[in-house]
Amino acid sequence: MCQSKWMKMEENKGGMDGSLDGGEDKKKNCSNVNGNGNGNGWPYASSRNRGNRIIAGLSSWPQAVDGFLSGRIGGKWYRIMVLLWLIVGTSVAAWTFYSMSREISRRRHESLVNLCVERAKMLQDQFVASMNHVRALTVLVSTFHLEMTPSVLYQEVFAAYTARTAFERPLMSGVAYAQRVMQSEREEFERLQGWKVRHMYTKEVQPTQEEYAPAVFSQETVSYLISLDMMSGQHDRENILRARESGKGALTTPFKLLDSSHLGVVFTFAVYSKELPPHATPQERTEATVGYLGGAFDVESLVENLLHQLAGNLGIIVNVYDTTNKSDPVLMYGSENIQNNVLNGHHICELDFADPDRNHEMHCSFSDAPQYSFSVIRTSAGIFVIVVLVGHILFAAINRIKKVEEDFRKMQELKARAEAADVAKSQFLATVSHEIRTPMNGVLGMLQMLMDTNLDATQKDYAQTAQSSGKALITLINEVLDQAKIESGRLELETVAFNIRSVLDSVLSLFSAKVQAKGIELAVFVSERVPEVVIGDPGRFQQIITNLVCNSVKFTMKGHIFICVHRAEEVSMLTQWLSSSKKSIEDPALHNSDTLSGLEAADGRNNWESFKLLFNSEAIFLESDGKVKFPKLTDDVKLAVSVEDTGIGIPIHAQHRVFTPFMQADSSTSRTHGGTGIGLSISRCLIELMGGEIRFISRPGVGSTFSFTALLKVGQENRESGDILLGSAKLTSQFRGMKALVLDGKPVRSLVTKHHLQRFGIEVKTVTSSQLALSMLNGMDGFPTESYGFEATRQIRAAELFNMERKSNCGEMQVVHSKRWHVPILAMTADVIQATHEECLRCGMDGYVSKPFEEEQLYKALAPFFDKSSIP
To answer: Which of 250, 256, 370, 583 could cross-link with 242 by S-S, CB 3.0 to 4.6 Å?
Structure first.
């Protein structure tokens, strides 16, 4: 069956669509690619792409701006609205200032009331307490002086007692007892006392009076009152008469005290000779009176001390008035010049000094006018400033909308220019890539054919050098295209099962000749805990390792290159174990020569001791209970890969830019070692797409160690499918007897393709005419016009369907086998930008391979077309 199968190999001149296809498919393809925004990924256009995205984001609101401007800002209403806003906002600020000031004034008045009440109550309580003590002294005098014969109360005893009890009369300057003496008793009284009764003010002997009230006992502070007639003073006489007639204490009006310039009052109690009933008449009280006990209050000094203890630094002014005469109140304490300023605050408290015939008041006010609170000013001013700023912002914003419109129109023009430049860039990149790959396919193909001939050593060396240079150019183009795809975000990873160890074997085979020529060791170690088969992108995984190993090979002149693959959990546990052992990467003890080649490595962890721990990992996974607990295998596996070399290392000043595209350590690197400085940048992007990260440790003169992680999935090992065997004999036996038809408009390209297919043992025919190709495929009718690429494929598939239906209707076959009438078509193109797998499937192709290609690439593209049962 395999001998009867035909395989059509499509090649084109202008890409997958073909140069003779009218250009329609190519135009549509370019449009699809560029429609995604820098789909071709020109590496130097990332800033322009970001600008395009910003401009595209702005395109959603121009209609709203236009509608707002045209529908509402046509008149002057917005200026009126701004003016109203300022008026309302200013009113709010003024109302806030007024309300907050009023609230502060209310609180200030409440504070004044509380302070005034507190002082009035304390002054009143102290005054009453002092009077009560004077009343108690009347009992003392009555008991020990009047009721005992002879009296046991003397001046010395009275003075000592009153001095010791002075703390109970904090507002009194002194107390004294005056005895009532009638004119008929004066001579005997003066003889017993040993002094003459004198006038209070003149200090002369008192002339004859109906009765007298000379002071016989006094406190030491008022001892000058002894022998003075209390009835000789107008205020004292009135006070004595009121006190003895009422039986209660009596206060004098304020007057200047004797031997003092201070204003004061005298409180007087009458002492009776016997106990009187509660409702005794004034006459009965007068007849029973035998003496008077009085206390002097130095209001200006005593009240000052009392109020000063409470006032502190509050700045409050207190005045005490005798308001018995409402029309002419007498100031007992305070300043006569005080003004009842409403702004300063004013409050009046009534005082009760236990004399019902006299009235007293306390007037309180703050000493300073109220100051506007900073919070009030700040709040109201803040509101006003905010209102003004908002008004200004609104006014300025509205005035600038038209300018924004103009700027937006300019941005639209710039966007159109940027998009045109992006299209031009994409076309340029596609054209350059295609035009370079197309001749390089012929060059490399002819060089391969030349190398298959009998050449001497010199000729073969020349051919190999030319082929190596061509492959280097293709590699550079691939790297630039990869970088462009990464920057444009169009690079996608495959998800297929592959064997990691086979990938590493391929890398070893790739660099084995170079490392042998340089005399360095290249070794690979894969932990036994790494799964045999994982699911991911094998090509990109191999590309990462190849880039890292390629750099190591270039910059390593002696020593070794060591590739290690572990599970990330193993490396993490090793790091923790080193930390618990108080060892680190910078530990000099780790930087020894116990490595693969005996030379010191940049990462001290990759020595023999660490390798033994990872190889026998029971030590690092040993739990505190003595049991070994390995991490459980899950569907996801995170691999940790490191590539260590003993090369020249990376200079310290250049280590921060090793992952920057097209940047190298210095200008001499490219001349000495080659390369473009893009491999590490691509590797980092690929690693990030795999969900990992890359790091490195480098020491100049010692070497470098690059480590990266990749998140893959665990796959199932398929025992039936073996690795791809790449040998001419094996490949020849796989495809021997098959036939292939190559359609290409250029004979040179057809010849190269024919050579590669013949190496597989395939019988190849080449044609340059699509009509001839269709007639050779089971006698199909020819094409109405010459066509290539996608259009030729569509016509072939249409002809297949037509022939199959015609034979079925004629009864020539009982069952229609679709595989029998389906000719595998493989596109071979240099257009890697536009020729996508989806586009090939849409037009009916079965796959494509990019030119120039290797023997392995072509085999992988051909193998899926045939069942294993059909391959001998």
So the answer is: 250
**Distance separating alpha carbons of residues 699 and 84, to the nearest angstrom:** 72
- Give the DSSP per-residue string, 490-510: ------EEEEHHHHHHHHHHH
Q: What are phi and psi of 407, to 5 degrees?
A: -60, -35
**Cβ atoms of residues 690 and 535 within 8 Å:** no
How is residue 164 written in tokens?
């010791």
Q: Environment class of residue 100 by beta-carbon count within 10 Å: exposed (0-12), middle (13-18) or buried (19+)? A: middle
CA gap 590, 604 in Å, rounded: 5
Task: Give the residue from 801, 803, 772, 800 showing the smallest Cα distance to 787.
Answer: 772
Residue 578 tokens read as 């080193």
Per-residue confidence (pLDDT) for residue 735, from 0 to 100 = 72
State the number of CA atoms in the 13 A half-sphere of 870 facing the CB: 15
Tallying the residues shown for the chain, one arrives at: 872
Closest CA to 769 of 794, 743, 751: 743
H or E stretch covering 850? strand 847-850
Dist CA 630 CA 648 (whole Å): 38
Helix/strand/coil for 395: helix
Dist. CA 603–CA 585, nearest whole Å: 6
Residue with token string 């009890």: 165
Query: Radius of gyration over alpha carbons of the chain, in Å?
Result: 59
Q: Compute the Cα dihedral for 834, 836, 842, 845 and give only its sign.
A: positive
Distance between CA atoms of 579 and 207, rounded to whole angstroms?
Answer: 116
- Token pair of 780, please? 């199909």
* Residues in Cβ contact with 320 at an 8 Å cutoff, skipping those fewer than 6 apart: 123, 299, 303, 331, 332, 333, 334, 351, 360, 361, 362, 363
Summarised one tens digit per residue, pLDDT across range 629-649 is 555 667 789 999 999 999 988
Q: Is the pLDDT of residue 384 over 60?
A: yes
CB within 8 A of 115, min separation 6: which ones?
310, 314, 316, 364
Q: Tokens at residue 658, please? A: 């090793």
Element (H, E) at 8: strand 6-11
Q: What is the pLDDT of residue 60?
A: 45
Structure tokens at 452: 């298959």
Phi, psi angle pair for 14, to nearest 5°: -110, 25
Of the candidates 601, 563, 489, the residue with the CA atom closest to the CA atom of residue 36: 489
Kind plus residue range of the DSSP H or E element containing 62: helix 62-72
**How far is residue 621's CA from residue 577's CA, in Å, rounded to a whole number?**
9
The whole-angstrom separation of Cα 615 and Cα 566 is 10
pTM: 0.44
The full 3-state SS of 643-705, as one line of letters, equals: EEECCCCCCHHHHHHCCCCCCCCCHHHHHHHCCCCCHHHHHHHHHHHCCCCEEEEEECCCEEE
Q: How far apart are CA 318 and CA 334, in angstroms?
A: 6
Beta bridge partners of 205: 198
Q: How many CB atoms lie within 10 A of CB 145?
A: 22
Cα 520 to chain centroid distance, Å, stands at: 50
User: How distant, in Å, are the alpha carbons of 146, 583, 800 from that of 657?
Assistant: 116, 29, 57
Kindly state the tokens that stand for 861: 């593209």
- CA-wise closest residue to 567 among 616, 614, 603: 614
Neighbours of 395 (CB within 10 A): 17
Per-residue pLDDT reduced to its tens digit, 173-232? 889 999 999 999 999 999 988 999 999 888 899 899 999 999 999 999 888 889 999 998
Query: In angstroms, how far is the first alpha carbon of the chain from the final one?
Result: 11
Q: Please answer whether residues 380 and 327 qualify as being in contact, where contact means their C-beta atoms are separated by less than 8 angstroms.
A: no
Residue 106 tokens, joined: 């209310």
Q: Beta strand 739-743 with 6-11: parallel, antiparallel or unpaired? A: parallel
Whether residue 525 contacts residue 562, with contact meaning beta carbons closer than 8 Å, is answered with: yes
Strand partners, 742: 9, 766
The single residue listed with the structure tokens 């304490």 is: 333
